[in-house]
Amino acid sequence: MTEIEGVEADAALPGMSERLWSSRRYLRLHPFDTSTPEGRSAERYRRIAWSTLLGGIGKVIAMGTGFISVSLAIGYLGSERYGMWVTMSSLVGVLGPLDLGIGLGLLTILSDANGRGDRETARRAVATSLVMLFTIGAAALLLFLATYALIPWPRLFNVHTAQAASEAGPAAAVLLTSFAIGLPLGIVGLIQLAHQSNYVSSAWAIAGNLGSLAAIVAVITLHASLPMLVLALTAVGLLAALLNGAVLFRFQWPWLRPHRADVDMKLIRPLLRVGGLFMILQIAGLAAYQLDNFVIAQIMGAESVAEYAIPLKLFSLAPTLLSFALTPLWPAYRESLARGDWAWISRTLRRSLLLAAAINIPSALFLIFAGPTVLHLWVGDKVHPTTILMLGLGVWVIVNTVNGPLAMLLNGAGAMGFQAACAILMAAGNVTISVFLVYHIGVSGAVWGSIIAQIVFVLLPSVWYVPRMLRRLPQTHPRPEADPQAESE
Fold first, then answer.
1. Is the pLDDT of residue 115 over 50?
2. Are 263 and 349 in a shared domain?
3. What does DSSP assign to residue 251?
4. Which domain holds residue 248?
5. DSSP symbols for 32-63
6. Do 194 and 262 have their domain in common?
7. Are 328 and 270 members of one domain?
8. pLDDT tens-digit profile of 5-59?
9. 3-state DSSP assignment of residue 383
10. If you placed Cys at 215, which of 83, 232, 350, 361 could pair as Cys (CB 3.0 to 4.6 Å)?
């Protein structure tokens, strides 16, 4: 029996534990022989396995360092300055769609070029995307500098103490400058993702997160200001991305190194067209979730943001870990549709819903009751969450038990128009309802506004749409003729 045949034989073993044990073969360090279809298939699985493993480890480390950082930062900064930092970070997060979907457009073009072995197109796409994102970042930075003196920063973040008011503008300047620099640097991770080597970027992210924790400890030890704290945190991440890019273009894939002559104006339209619809989804998602902190800050003051943001981090732990199991389903659904394997799609959807329920529901119920004690152990007396807030966050996690798996299926099926329409309605409804509820019931109104908007504009339409889509699959995605090479893979 050959090595590849042994892999396939192990994969046929019944039972979840046997399948998980057999997949250990894909964690080998050296690649499979890609001169055969079987070897190429095994190599894809090896790269996916390492990406999932390092991505999961990286996320756990990021959440761990994040929890420690929150505990250190809120104790050092106090509620108002910490709330201002969280609010401005949320506003900068809203600027994510400024990349105009170029990143996802590049990802698609690179994946196609990689499959064809077309290095010329790949290099031109990288160079063109880099110039486009650098231009966008430079324009955003120039606009910010031109309007900096005109913006009433203390009023924007609704802070009142003299120290917070003096730090508002400089801290925002550091954060926005880092965002502008990070736009073109983000290309590095996308290149590695397109070549199924995102485990490399995960390794660099681990180093960056550990470095950020060291930076915050150093800043607090030196009793530095909030702008210096923001600079230390963002500089470490940017340095990790820069070093990752240097290694990639110097050693990993030197043939992808961009040059000025490689910039191709004809690629601008394809880059924008591919990412346009995803940009709409991104904008709607950011408007729905990132503006909650801003709404609370404007209505109740920056010091109230921590009362919402810190418990939210705690409840987000289980859904974030679950995402590492759900995200790989997106391309798997795409492949199954191409092969006409409708039974696998339905079976996998049911299993993903059960997995999400097994992780999210116990976590939500535990935190609803034990969350205040956990928060006290974590940050002391800095936050005092109400019962209605903890209940709302628990319900929010449970609602996402269904929304997450359904979203992966809809992404894989290419139902982007349906999702975009739902997302736009949900974002508008979320902001409107959250403003109303925050005025009437306080901080917890933000999460209850999200719950109502998600149920009405996302969950119920998806529950109606998905079964009908599954029944139409044999007509919309018929099973292709048997292909010996496809079967071998």
1. yes
2. no
3. I
4. 34-274
5. P-TTSHHHHHHHHHHHHHHHHHHHHHHHHHHH
6. yes
7. no
8. 344 434 433 444 455 445 566 666 666 665 655 555 565 556 666 666 776 777 7
9. coil
10. 232
